[in-house]
Amino acid sequence: LLKVSNILAQSLNIDELSGEVIAQMFTLLKRINRGAILLLNKETGRLKEVVSKTRMEDKEGIFSKINYSRTIVNRALKEGKPVMISDTSRVDKADLSDSMERMNIRSVMCVPLSHKGDLKGVIYVDSIGSPEGFRKDDLQLLTGLSNTAAIAIENARLYSNLEKSVELRTKQLEKAKDRLQQSESRFRAVFEHMSNGVAIFKAIDDGADFIFKDFNKAAEKIDKIKKEDVINKSVFTVFPSFKDHGLFDVFKRVWKTGKSEDHPPMLYKYDGITSWRTDYVYRLPNREIVLIYEDVTAQKQAAENQQKLRKQLSEAQKLESLGRLAGGVAHNFRNILQAIMGNSQFLQMIYSQDEQLQKIAGVINESVKKGSDFIDSLLKVSRQDIEREILALDLKDVLDETYKIISNTFDKRIKIATKIEESLPVKGDHLSLNQVFINLCNNAQDSMPDGGELTIEAKKDKEVVIVTISDSGCGMDEETMKNIFDPFYTTKDVGEGTGLGLSITHRIIREHKGKISVSSEPGKGTIFKVFFPVAKKIGRVKSESPLRIKHGKGEKILIVDDEPAVLRALENMLKAIGYEVDSASNGDQAIKHHKTYKPDLVLLDWKMPDMDGATCARKILDFDPTARIVIITGYQETVKNKIDARLKNDIKGLLLKPCRLEKLNKVVLKALNS
To answer: Is this prediction's pTM over 0.85?
Structure first.
């Protein structure tokens, strides 16, 4: 049995073990003619022949069919004890199989294969020919062999089960590995093809620093750096200014708390890169930090452009409204100015020797001119083009005039200092440039309600004339400086400003091919710098000369205007310079007077109720094609927009209210001589 045990211990294959057990049985028990090992399938409860052997014929062969007594086998299984029949002739035939009788089997032994109370199967042997083929010591030997075989078979079964389990587990692991590889492949594909930049970091020194562990292609493109240049390097080595944007604090919080965070859009500037980005930071289960970021510069610029367009649209709508308002105001306001200027110049002619009256009239005329310029400014800022007289001039003359005005009108608590170089040649419109500097000085005065210092400096620097206007006022913040040149933008209370002054200033400077800059801080005053290109030659502002008038010779002029004050002023002006004058207050009267009065020239207001100037002019020309007509208007844009080809050829002149006597005289003479 020890020898058998040693032999059986060398194999863990059930079939090999069963064959070895059968071989040892046949060696130890010479009287065995046939033998088989039957193992029990616990799941089905059925026996299965594993191996069998016979001494019949060629000494050994494979049973083609299980030929054993099921009654004996079942008895051994049921009782769990060895069963031996020494002489089958003494046993009930029902307990024997037909094959046993045919083969003349006379003795049978069946021993359970059991290990630790667990039934594994049976060993079945029989003897052919003579009865009493087996003795008790044969049964004992077979029982001992069965115990050893049961242990070996159990070990083999366990090993077989283990092999199957290992094989199954190996297959499972291989499948898991395949799935993991597929997952890793998918992750890598997604990681590398994401449009967002993705970087993975590992914290070191208890979150004092973070090193790069992975870096996708989008991140390479956004940061303009290769993956191999960042892996295993400190974030501060790669991006020295990392702390400046607040993202490092987000890293530390997420690493400590595990709570993901969105970092709002920020402007990043480093290594020549300037871009707006959004950042999302979260922590992996292994405590690595993942940063997902997107370059939103294009979206930011698009949003800013959209906001700018909305602002421009809003400004355009406001300016359009202002233009309509200015157009309506221009006509009425200029009618008033025309009456004032006409009467003022009429007085100048009558009292030409009265020096004091001449001065007063000059001040009145200058005020009328400024009022007219104000209307021009409104029309200009509302994109209603006004022709300006661009001439070579000395900017010092303009600044001297500005100083004269503000020194007489500003709060006396404001100390005004000037430092203006001689000879500052530029090309420009004197009145427009004067308006620029008065607007800037007014802005300075408004910033110093309790007094302060205002300085005007001007110098020539190579090809540029620089005018600097600085004050010691309240100053401005960055947001205010961004918007001060926008139309209607004002920081003043309602009723204290239109928000147009600096917008007009900016527009005039651009028209003169100049530039303006502003620097300021709250509480530290403001400095405006205006730059104009130097002109090749210099001009001087001509002082107002005495009226130079060429008198008429009694030519008849019909004046048509719905404003009585304007009619009287124009009548007085024309009569004073030698013309015969008749007047009409509307279109119907003008037609009747023309037919009876037969004037040499019609001075026709363009904008009148009931019948406008265009209609009146056409009707006069219908019955008198040779009529000479001069249009006088407070808003020349309406004339330009509505005049047709016929009127354009027949109209002999155009006067813009308020017109000076010299201009009126010049246009009338030209029309009469046409």
So the answer is: no
Query: Is position 50 within any domain?
Result: yes
Contact indicator for 602, 558 with CB cutoff of 8 Å? yes
Instruction: Return d(Cα 571, Cα 549) in angstroms, integer.
Output: 16
225 and 157 co-located in one domain: no
CATH of residue 241 = 3.30.450.20
- By residue range, what is the domain housing residue 638? 556-672
The mean predicted confidence, pLDDT, of the chain is: 83
**Degrees, nearest 5: CA angle 415-419-425:** 135
Secondary structure class of 407 (helix, strand, coil): helix
Clarify whether residues 572 and 519 are in a common domain.
Answer: no
Beta-strand pair 105-115/197-204: unpaired
Q: Token pair for residue 37?
A: 């090992």
Rg (CA), the chain: 59
371 inside domain: no
Count of domains forming the chain: 4
Sign, Cα dihedral of 476, 477, 483, 487: negative
Per-residue DSSP letters for 91-157?
Answer: S-GGGS-HHHHHTTEEEEEEEEEEETTEEEEEEEEEEESSS----HHHHHHHHHHHHHHHHHHHHHH
Q: pLDDT for 141-197, tens place per residue?
A: 888 888 888 888 888 788 888 888 888 988 999 998 888 888 888 888 888 888 899
Q: What is the pLDDT of residue 59?
A: 46
Q: Please provide the DSSP assignment of 185-218 as one string.
A: HHHHHHHHH-SSEEEEEEEETTTTEEEEEEE-HH
115 in any annotated domain:
yes
Evaluate whether 546 touches 318 at the Cβ level (below 8 Å).
Answer: no
What pLDDT is recorded for position 88? 82
Percent of the chain with pLDDT strictly greater than 90: 30
Judged against a pLDDT cut of 80, whether residue 124 lies above it is answered with: yes
Pair 159, 13 in one domain: yes
User: Which range among 282-291, 382-391, 490-499, 591-600 shows the weakest confidence by mean pLDDT?
Assistant: 490-499
Q: Residue 665 is which amino acid? A: N
pLDDT digits (tens, 9 = 90+) for 573-627: 899 899 999 999 999 999 999 999 999 999 999 888 889 888 999 999 999 999 9
CATH of residue 516: 3.30.565.10
Please report the pLDDT score of residue 491 as a whole number: 61
Residues 563 and 430 in one domain: no
Domain assignment present for residue 611? The answer is yes
Last residue of a domain, one of 295, 317, 332: 295
Co-location of 579 and 657 in the same domain: yes
Tokens of 590: 């003008």
212 and 117, same structural domain?
no
Determine the residue type at 437: F
Is the pLDDT at 358 greater than 90? The verdict is no
Together in a domain, 59 and 205: no
Other CB atoms closer than 10 Å to residue 303's CB: what's the count? 13
Q: What's the CATH code of the domain at 157? A: 3.30.450.40
Whether residue 116 is found in the same domain as residue 148: yes
**Nearest CA among 375, 390, 383, 464 for reference residue 433:** 390
